[in-house]
């Protein structure tokens, strides 16, 4: 085990490497720099312009396009798309120093934690997924306050040590997030509903609207806040979302099929002129949404 893990100030004394300096990785670097949470921050990205930006903004102490830079780090955070994380894990494991903590920020956890089981015994793996983001991507969208107030899910493996978990919790707290330990399978089932399904719904809405817009040029000029808010997630990074949907396939498909059943029920009641049944559906949904809003306000 690396010596910094035995210290109460372990994260503060650590060199941290972030692989991927897009929205999530760039925001993490900026937030950690702002709070002075660790000794050094290393950034790894293939994009030369992003490396230059990250250094210029003071987000990282050193930037490289070479993954081998992870060998200098005590904590390694993979902030790339899910299937890229899966490809990087064996290479990172082979290069990581003794006792290094290997984390990820991927949006699906079952496949990643399963891949982490295959990492060498000398590293400390732990899955993570901060519940925040934007529809914009890239380092230009990075924001030091992105994680503030967000739930930061941690999915430790059976082999994850208490010290490594404590370090991951300290990292989440350092960027203003709230760490929460969760089973990876349960995590994937929940986020399929509250995170992945909304993106799929927004995409379907946008495609549907565009079909109508082809025959009536006034569709988009008339679109206001309701359409803007419900379609916003359709602008999410395509590569990231494709990876998420393909690596959390079964829970996402289940959520989509249940959602489709409820849409069909709404259509059926409208066709049947069933005003009583339609009112019941609308009132149930409105009541649940108002209660959720109240609970969220109270939690703050």
How would you describe this protein?
The chain has 300 residues and is of the alpha/beta class. The protein has 2 domains: 3-182, Rossmann fold; 187-299, 6-phosphogluconate dehydrogenase C-terminal like domain (6-phosphogluconate dehydrogenase C-terminal fold, Orthogonal Bundle), CATH 1.10.3660. 52% of the residues lie in helices and 13% in strands. It has 11 helices and 8 strands. The protein has an 8-stranded mixed β-sheet with strand order 3-2-1-4-5-6-7-8, sandwiched between helices. Helix 6 (184-213) crosses helix 10. The radius of gyration is 21 Å and the shape is elongated. The mean pLDDT is 93.
List the helices and strands and how they pair.
Layout lengths: L14 E5 L3 H13 L4 E5 L3 H9 L5 E3 L10 E4 L3 H14 L5 E4 L5 H7 L7 E7 L20 E6 L5 H13 L3 E4 L2 H30 L5 H4 L2 H7 L6 H10 L1 H23 L3 H25 L1
Parallel strand pairs: 1-2, 1-4, 2-3, 4-5, 5-6, 7-8
Antiparallel strand pairs: 6-7
**Oligomer kind:** single chain
Query: Class by helix and strand content?
Result: alpha/beta
**CATH class wording of the largest domain:** Alpha Beta
Examine the coordinates and then state which fold CATH places here, giving the name of the CATH topology of the largest domain: Rossmann fold
Global morphology? elongated
How much helicity do the residues have?
40-55%
The count of strands amounts to: 8
Compute the average pLDDT: 93
User: So, CATH architecture of the largest domain?
Assistant: 3-Layer(aba) Sandwich
Radius of gyration: 21 Å
């Amino acid at each position: 085990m690396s010596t910094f893990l035995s210290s109460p100030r372990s994260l503060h004394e650590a060199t941290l490497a972030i692989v991927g300096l897009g929205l999530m990785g760039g925001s993490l670097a900026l937030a950690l720099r702002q709070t002075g949470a660790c000794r050094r921050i290393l950034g790894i990205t293939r994009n030369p312009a992003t490396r230059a930006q990250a250094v210029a903004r003071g987000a990282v102490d050193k930037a490289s396009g070479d993954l081998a830079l992870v060998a200098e780090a005590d904590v390694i955070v993979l902030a790339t798309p899910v299937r890229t994380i899966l490809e990087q894990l064996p290479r990172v494991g082979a290069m990581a120093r003794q006792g290094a903590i290997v984390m990820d920020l991927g949006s699906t956890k079952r496949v990643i934690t399963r891949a982490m089981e295959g990492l060498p015994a000398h590293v400390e793996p732990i899955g993570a997924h901060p519940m925040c983001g934007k529809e914009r991507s890239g380092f230009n969208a990075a924001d030091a306050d992105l994680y503030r107030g967000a739930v930061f899910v941690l999915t430790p493996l059976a082999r994850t040590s208490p010290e490594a978990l404590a370090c991951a919790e300290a990292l989440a707290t350092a960027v203003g997030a709230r760490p929460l330990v969760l089973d990876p399978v349960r995590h994937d089932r929940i986020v399929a509903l509250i995170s992945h399904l909304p993106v799929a719904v927004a995409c379907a809405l946008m495609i549907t609207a565009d079909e109508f817009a082809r025959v009536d040029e006034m569709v988009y000029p008339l679109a206001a806040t309701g359409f803007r808010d419900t379609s916003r997630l359709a602008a999410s990074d395509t590569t990231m979302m494709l990876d998420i949907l393909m690596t959390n396939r079964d829970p996402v498909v289940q959520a989509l099929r249940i959602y489709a059943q409820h849409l069909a029920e709404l259509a059926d009641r409208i066709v049947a002129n069933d005003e009583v049944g339609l009112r019941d559906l609308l009132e149930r949904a409105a009541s649940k949404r108002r209660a959720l809003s109240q609970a969220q306000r109270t939690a703050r």
